[in-house]
Amino acid sequence: AAKAAGKNQVAVFDYTLRAARLHHAEIAAGLRQALAAEELTLAYQPVVNLTTGAVYAVEALLRWTPSGGRRVPPDVFIPVAEDTGLIVEIGRWALEQACAQAKQWHRRYGIAVTVNVSGRQLRERSFRDTVLEILTRHALPRNALTLEVTESMLLATSPAETQRIVAVLADLRAHGVRIALDDFGTGYSSLAYLRTLPVDILKIDRSFTTPLTGADHRQARAFTKAIVELAAGLDLATVVEGVESREQAGILQQMGCPLAQGYLFSPPISPAEVDDLLQVSPWQHAV
Ligand code: C2E
Ligand code: MG
Ligand code: MG
Ligand code: MG
């Protein structure tokens, strides 16, 4: 519920409703020009193998710095991009850019790129063809791309539409593209439902990571361990998000969690910094 509230414009800004609406309009106007003005970039955050430290993938994360302004965080502008429909164009750009930038990383180090996809994009009739066309044009193997979706975007529509979206994801997966379920544990889907989804990777939300070393750590660890084991039983890989301390990493490794992401390993960084990271210790990177 806290996470849901965090995505709500009014709650984020704690403004009056009217101010929030003005702000929304301002962001929408700025976003409309952001692509053409080349104000959008992608940062990449490594996903690492907890046992070997090897970089397994990089997650592409949108960054927006309006010219002459301050950076606007994705949690603020993505919802506006979704409301206005601009996310379709921005999302296509992100996919295109990520595939172009990740090509070398994949060729040299076997690293996959993961791209976040919004519900609005998924519902576009052309989504499947767009993804396959971009991969073909960049000559990127399909298994070098992972699409991140959330449970909520699968549930936030009619059952028929959900079925259609699940079929699109299953189709892409049959073509080799991997699907990750992002922010797992914050939605409402039952474990039985999870079994029916075309998913390869479970990304356990950051809200599970912080309590691993908190006051109620016994409960928190039992919970995370159960998810990790369930995922393994379903042949899913798990990535734990938001790992910030060595202690958390150690606990997760002991649980048998294979992959992690977080400030402990690296914040989201520029493509040039990814190059450096991969070059400095190539021995770390399993292909
Ligand atoms: P997400 O996909 O769950 O991405 C993880 C977020 O957690 C990122 O925030 C990342 O910077 C942050 N993070 C990573 N490690 C740590 C850590 O150790 N501690 C803490 N406190 N945070 C950490 P960011 O970049 O602000 O992105 C926020 C959300 O915006 C993303 O959550 C995703 O839902 C959305 N987003 C970002 N880029 C895109 C995009 O290209 N398309 C779509 N549709 N959504 C995007
Ligand atoms: Mg993500
Ligand atoms: Mg996430
Ligand atoms: Mg998220």
UniProtKB/TrEMBL annotation:
Name of this protein: Diguanylate cyclase/phosphodiesterase
Domain EAL residue range list: 24-282
Lineage, opening ranks: Bacteria, Bacillati, Actinomycetota, Actinomycetes, Streptosporangiales
